[in-house]
Design goal:
Elements lengths: L40 E6 L4 E8 L7 E5 L10 E4 L19 E7 L7 E9 L8 E8 L37 E4 L7 E4 L5 E4 L42 E3 L11 E6 L4 E2 L16 E6 L6 E3 L10 E2 L6 E3 L4 E7 L4 E8 L2
Parallel strand pairs: 4-5, 11-12, 12-14, 13-15, 16-19
Antiparallel strand pairs: 1-2, 2-3, 5-6, 6-7, 8-9, 9-10, 14-18, 15-17, 18-19
Length: 348
């Protein structure tokens, strides 16, 4: 619906339908404009009564009037995509947006020298269910020849009032190896490369403001592996949290769930007869374990492999060791030998 006064003089001030079968030319002699009022729609595709897309200044929310572009639901021939391209992409069968169901902005450019081949960087809004479920994902997709250069994503002022914890998060998902890359300003500072298999490569510093926690999934290893000739340097105290006290009978095994294990017998002086003494399932080559005694009443004796075949403990002087309160012994596991070698013991 157009207001005829906005099309020039000589029309009455009533609303009429205007059908245009040719061009609507405003001319160039002076500045011209096409005005749509609040909630008036500029419609595209199919028919005016059942258009595929609408652009309007929407006032349904009295506290947040906005320019609203509504797109098809998607999942069929009509997809909810706003594609931005240069002239070479006009009227091209791009083959990039088939099946898209989430509102998407596609930024396109020619990919290589192959005619009709395009790459695109997708900006995709997902999860618009409620305020706490907003997700903003930026996904790189490409077909044909790779496009040179970097894609820079600047994300500033994340969060705000009420946005804390998991509601203030940058989530990176890689679709090809080595595609997620973060770098400090002007190429300086922290550089992070996130690979498809979950590998996080860091050049620079990883800073925690407040208490920082690095967590892996249950029963998964967390590996720090410097490059060849590199060192792992810790400019702070190292705290290894011991396990809860493991109360063991003669036939039980020690469970090395951390590098510091507290043990005692299940009553009085007990000598382990389990083979092996330590459950080595999933233990890594070079893994260290310090075992602490936690009782001067419920003593626990470990046996050297020469005294109990299959204990898999190689102890200093082939001598057994009894753990009382505060006594401790440290071992290192060697995978090729399948045994734990004693490093030190302390009878306190």
């Amino acid at each position: 619906m157009f207001h005829p006064d906005y099309l020039g003089g000589g029309f009455s001030a009533t609303f009429v339908d205007v059908t245009i079968t040719g061009d609507l030319d405003f001319g160039s002699a002076s500045v011209q404009s096409l005005f749509l009022g609040d909630n008036d729609e500029l419609r595209f595709g199919n028919t005016a009564a059942a258009s595929n897309a609408q652009l309007t200044w929407e006032t349904a929310d009295a506290n947040a009037n906005c320019l609203l572009l509504s797109l098809p639901t998607g999942g069929g021939t009509d997809v909810p995509v706003l594609a931005i391209t240069d002239a070479s992409g006009y009227q091209q069968d791009l083959g990039l947006f088939d099946g898209i169901t989430d509102p998407t902005i596609g930024l396109l450019n020619a990919a290589g020298s192959v005619a009709g081949t395009y790459s695109w960087q997708q900006i995709n809004m997902e999860g618009l269910v409620n305020e706490t479920a907003y997700n903003f994902s930026i996904i790189q997709n490409a077909t044909g020849s790779a496009v040179s250069g970097k894609r820079w994503i600047n994300i500033e002022a994340l969060g705000g009032t009420g946005y804390t914890g998991t509601n203030r998060m940058i989530y990176l998902r890689t679709q090809d190896s080595n595609v997620a890359f973060l770098e400090g300003n002007s190429g300086s500072g922290t550089t992070v490369l996130l690979e498809r298999d979950g590998t996080l490569n860091l050049a620079g510093e990883l800073n925690f403001f407040g208490e920082g926690v690095l967590t892996s999934a249950t029963a998964e290893d967390f590996t720090i592996r410097p490059g060849t000739g590199g060192k792992f340097i810790m400019d702070a105290s190292v705290v290894i949290s011991p396990t809860a006290v493991q109360t063991l009978g003669a036939a039980d095994q020690i469970s090395p769930t951390t590098s510091s294990v507290d043990v005692q017998s299940d009553g009085g002086a007990v000598t382990l007869t389990s083979t092996p003494h330590i459950d080595s399932t999933g233990v890594n080559n070079g893994e260290r374990l310090r075992i602490w005694g936690r009782s001067d009443t419920d003593l626990l004796t470990l046996q050297d492999n020469s005294n109990l075949a299959g204990s898999d403990l190689k102890m200093n002087g082939s001598t057994n060791f009894t753990l009382g309160l505060g006594d401790n012994i440290e071992f290192e596991y060697r995978l090729a030998d399948g045994v734990w070698y004693e490093i030190s013991r302390s009878d306190n």
